[in-house]
Each structure stands twice: as C-alpha cells, then as structure tokens.
Amino acid sequence: MLNGSGTFDAIAARRTFGDELLERFPFDAFVSKTITLAPRQGNPPPRLWETPAGLINSIGLPNKGLEGFLASDLPELAELPVPLVVSVMGFSRDELAELVERVGQREEIALIELNVSCPNVETGLVMGADPAETARAVERTRPLTEKPLIVKLTPNAAEPQAVAAAAASAGADAVSLINTLKGMALHPRTRSPWLGGGSGGVSGPAVRAVALEQVYTVARAVEIPVIGMGGIQTGRHAADFIAAGAAAVAVGTESFRDPAAGARVADELGVILCSERGFPLRPRHRPARMDGPDRKTPATGDKTVK
Ligand SMILES: Cc1cc2nc3c(=O)[nH]c(=O)nc-3n(C[C@H](O)[C@H](O)[C@H](O)COP(=O)(O)O)c2cc1C
C-alpha cells in the first residue's frame, strides 16, 4: 500500500502525531509530493473545492525546489521506516534529466516517480498526454539512474494505454495511475472560477470508476507492474483494482478524511485476499492513533478540509 503523491505530508504528520507515526506508519512505501527544479509558490488561493464525492484541487505544486528538498525534506523523509519514492516533474526534458540525475545519486531514495501528468501545470499535461513525448522523457532519464522509474500517467490523455506502452518500451519499470482529472467549480454567487488556478484536478470517489477502467486497460497493454489509484476508500475498492490488474494500490484523497486510511485499507484488503485465496490471515500492526478530537490533515498540516 502506497500513498498518492501530494496527499499525505509525512513531515507534518510526524509533527502532529510524533514518533508513534514511525512505529505504525500507514503505508508500505512513501511517495513524496512532486518536486520541481526551482522552488514554486503554487497557485493562488482558494486551492480546494469539495465536491459531493471528492475534491477539486488547484495546489499548483508548491515546493522548495530540488536544493531545498535535498537539504531540508530529505533528511526527515529518510527517517521513515519504509522505502522512499521521490516524485519529480520537469518543465523541459533537461530539467527532468537534472532532477532524475541528482535524486538518483541519493541512497536514501529507493525509487523515482516521473510526474508527467499534473493537470495544474501546462507542460505536465503536454508530456503525459502524448505517447511520443512520454517516451522521449523516459529515454532521456532512463540512462541517468539505476533506480527504478515509475511513470505516473494522466487520465487526461486520449489513450492512456498508448502512453503506458510508450513509457514501458522506453524503459519505465512501472506505471502508476490515475492522476487527477481536469475539473472546475464556479463561485456560487459570482459564477467566476472558484479556484485561484482557474481549473483544477478532480480526485476521490468521483473518479474511481474512471480509474478502474484505465487500470484495467493499461494492465492489458503493458507487462510492467501497474500501481492503481483513484478514489480508493476501502479494502473492497483496493481488491477491485487488484482484480483489474494492479500489482499495488495507493490511497490518496481518503487520507484527508482519515489519516490512517492507508493502514485501514491494507488491513481490509488483507482480509479480503486471504479469504478469497484461502491464505491464513496475518494481521498488520495497528496504525498510529490519528483520529483524536483535534484531528489534523497530514496532507497540509492544517485542520481537516471539512
Ligand atoms: C491535494 C492533492 C495534491 C496532489 N498532489 C500531487 C502531486 O504533487 N503529484 C502527483 O503526481 N499527484 C498529485 N495528486 C494526485 C494524487 O496523487 C492521486 O493520483 C489522485 O488524487 C487520485 O487518487 P485519489 O482519488 O485516491 O486521491 C494530488 C492529489 C490531491 C487531491
């Protein structure tokens, strides 16, 4: 069980829940929020809109940039008790290459995820929406590191399976999907776009059926492992993604509602798979207690969205 990039801030969570988080970490591997070469402020507020079945976010990749990440975030993330995946996004292939090369030199990092799919940043959409562009990005970065490369696909592509196949042929070790779907909300009174970034990315239960179909289709188009995500809230949802062809699954938006969701969904999935396949049940450790009255969201360190 992984987290979806950008949906669980492990550094804020550790500040909030203390070292108990390390003893009972809710994920089996941790994916960082996407970093870029230069620091970014992100989009102007408001950055979130709650829909009847999920969120629209227009966060816009705020981050400290590569140097800031390596100097201040990496030492803290390296203390997590699970393998670290660092998500990177470049505004050109040169930028992406520099990110992969520098991140690849750090032994604290186990895998690299190429975010070619963020709908909030113009060039991210272009790269991940086109099979040839994606292949060129992977071909350029593949020789620069021996670490496994995961390509995170966008659902906003005409044929995600063609993009996945191009990534695999170019040397990707795995693909993950889905990132957020393009969406928009209007201000209830002014009828102008609510989000500071104009449009945003839809996530949560609203996208689960779309994600399931794309995972199913992509898993039949490539031989490399597929990491499935999009609206997973329960072990039953996770079991569906595995039945569709995912080798692993990730929890994203659900962690805003329940910071221990990763461990809960993994536990529920374990029960389902053991009963379906007749394996003896070996319960995981219980997650850190993250449901107190003053529950905060580790995704932002702020009070919960609701
Ligand atoms: C607030 C927020 C921030 C996100 N930030 C990133 C990011 O930095 N990089 C990335 O690849 N995906 C990002 N995502 C997408 C998630 O990782 C995930 O792919 C998507 O939300 C679908 O899964 P879910 O429905 O379980 O949330 C973000 C999603 C949300 C809701």
Cα distance spanning the termini: 25 Å
Strand content: 5-15%
Task: Classify the helix fraction into a percent range.
Answer: 25-40%
Cofactors, ions, other ligands: flavin mononucleotide
Write the element-wise H/E pattern from the N-terminal end onward.
Answer: EHHEEEHEHEHHEHEEEHEHEHH
- The total of helices stands at 11
Assembly classification: single chain
| Main sheet attributes: strand count, strand direction, barrel closure | 8 strands, parallel
Could you give the count of β-strands?
Answer: 12
Content-based structural category: alpha/beta
Nearest-integer average pLDDT: 91
Rg from Cα:
18 Å
Kindly describe this structure.
The protein is α/β, with parallel strands linked by helices and 306 residues long. Helices cover 36% and strands 14% of the residues. The chain has 11 helices and 12 strands. The protein has helices at residues 10-17, 20-23, 65-77, 93-104, 122-129, 131-141, 160-169, 208-219, 235-244, 254-257, 261-277; strands at residues 2-3, 30-31, 48-51, 54-57, 84-88, 111-115, 149-152, 174-177, 181-183, 200-203, 226-228, 248-251. It has an 8-stranded parallel beta sheet. α4 (93-104) packs parallel to α6 (131-141), α5 packs across α6 and α6 runs parallel beside α7 (160-169). The longest helix is centred in the C-terminal third of the chain and has 17 residues, at 261-277. 48% of the residues are buried. Mean pLDDT is 91; it is low at 292-296 and 300-306. It binds flavin mononucleotide. The site of flavin mononucleotide has 27 residues, from β4.
